[in-house]
Design brief:
Layout (H helix, E strand, L loop, with lengths): L5 H21 L5 E14 L11 E17 L3 E8 L6 E9 L6 E8 L4 H4 L12 H6 L3 E11 L2 E9 L7 E14 L2 E19 L2 E2 L10 E2 L3 E17 L2 E14 L4 E14 L5 E4 L2 E5 L3 E13 L4 E13 L4 E14 L2 E16 L1
Antiparallel strand pairs: 1-2, 1-20, 2-3, 3-4, 4-5, 5-6, 6-7, 7-8, 8-9, 9-12, 10-11, 12-13, 13-14, 14-17, 15-16, 17-18, 18-19, 19-20
Length: 362
């Protein structure tokens, strides 16, 4: 179980309290926005997705059930508070204050997403496939308590932050991202991006243990148990949207140095392609990919791979899918996944899975 840093807990509680106070005070002025979404998932997969099993599985779950509160108080201040209510537990996802009164940057303080990875920064409501790729889940940081600055210069967007990751009480991280849009006509565009993160984990437990892009299956791509001292992350991004086509690709790598100064390397990437039959594109703003705006069908596909170089283990997935957006509230998704596991350069297992999702936003 992860320990909670008392200082972090106090800061987070203060931010949550501030968010609720602002929400209450400004609700009568229509400055409070309440929203949320729920995702119902169903996964069917064969024994290749299980550590120990002699029969295929068919399982369902409430994958996400989230409620968010956004408000603006005074002229340049905004807040966001989001919780997840899945499985009867309450988890704070976002809790931050944002100041937008500077000409050169916005300042965000609190629990927030670290700026690393286009797919990781894309909301789960707006993904091309039901699950993010293996490399995004394994390497891209998620939410952390910290302070960040972000800004825009011509066709470039940047973000730099100092965070306290959840790995340990004393862990710290500096994470940054720079994106460039060399060509854009409305939502027809080309996007290029780079990101880095330097993380000091101070001997925290670390182990790579990833699923094969099927959430209710077992984690099969596993690495050595480490006591990590330093972690260095790097990533590159590419996005092209035009006339209904979306092409999205990333490559990420990590070097983990343990307390004995031994280094472990991990790397991977993916290529995704989708086509909306309406000919329209997803929205795009400030280096981030947004939602489908036109009801209708979308065809998707992805090739994904992730390698544990020192352990000589690798996984690959090939996926195709179809999405149907009924309106801005209701969406259905379905994916077929073919996964392969390799060790020592030889294929040791392969299997098939089908994932389904019904998603409702309010």
């Amino acid at each position: 179980m992860k320990k909670t840093n008392p200082v972090s807990a106090h800061i987070l509680c203060a931010l949550v309290s501030c968010t609720f106070v602002n929400s209450y005070v400004f609700a009568k002025d229509d400055n409070l926005e309440i929203g949320g979404y729920i995702m119902l998932d169903h996964d069917s997969f064969d024994t290749a997705f299980l550590e120990d099993g002699d029969s295929s599985q068919s399982l369902a779950e409430i994958r996400r059930a989230r409620l968010s509160f956004k408000s603006q108080f005074m002229k340049d201040w905004k807040t966001k508070f989001q919780i997840d209510l899945t499985d009867g537990n309450t988890e704070i996802k976002d809790a931050y204050l944002r100041y937008q009164g500077l000409n050169w940057a916005d300042i965000t303080l609190g629990k927030q997403k670290e700026a690393f990875g286009l797919e990781k920064l894309t909301s789960s409501r707006n993904l091309l496939m039901i699950e993010r790729s293996m490399v995004s889940e394994a390497l891209a940081p998620g939410r952390s308590l910290g302070i960040s600055a972000s800004g825009e210069l011509a066709s470039m967007n940047w973000q730099l932050g100092y965070y306290q990751p959840e790995e340990s009480e004393s862990a710290t991280a500096i994470t940054g991202r720079l994106t460039w849009t060399p060509w854009q006509q409305n939502n027809n565009l080309v996007h290029l991006g780079v990101a880095f993160s330097e993380r000091d984990l101070n001997g925290s437990e670390f182990r790579m243990n990833e699923q094969l892009e099927v959430n209710l299956s077992d984690s099969l791509l596993d690495g050595e148990n480490l006591l990590a001292d330093k972690v260095s992350l790097a990533g590159i991004e590419f996005l092209w949207q035009q006339n209904g086509f979306t092409t999205l690709a990333e490559w990420q790598q990590a070097t983990v140095k343990d307390v004995n100064s031994s280094e472990y390397d991990y790397q991977g990437g993916y290529l995704q392609v989708s086509y909306q039959l309406s000919g329209d594109n997803r929205t795009y703003k400030n280096g981030s990919l947004g939602k489908v705006t036109t009801p209708g069908w979308e065809l998707t596909s992805r090739y994904s791979q992730f390698e544990l170089l020192n352990e000589d283990r690798e996984a690959q997935t090939y996926s195709i899918g179809v999405n149907y957006t009924v309106n801005n509230k209701l969406k259905f998704m379905g994916d077929y996944i073919k996964a392969k596991l390799f060790e020592g350069g030889f294929e040791i297992d392969a299997g098939d899975a089908i994932s389904l999702r019904a998603q409702y936003s309010f």
